[in-house]
Give the backbone structure.
Amino acid sequence: MEYRVLGSIWFGKIGIVAIDSNGHGWKAYIGIGTGLDLTGDEQIIASKGVPVGQAIALAAFSELEPTEFKN
């Protein structure tokens, strides 16, 4: 499955990735990528990352609609 990535922020190989939740808002996940391929790393984190809480997600992705965030 390929995720529709809405944005990502990086701290070295650690990334927070926001994805579309199948047209029902958005979610965010944190994880570790390889550091070799941005798009591939975003997909890895979207599929295997740990869900990010609302406060961190809204701070990281202030450009996304806050009321559409889903836990």
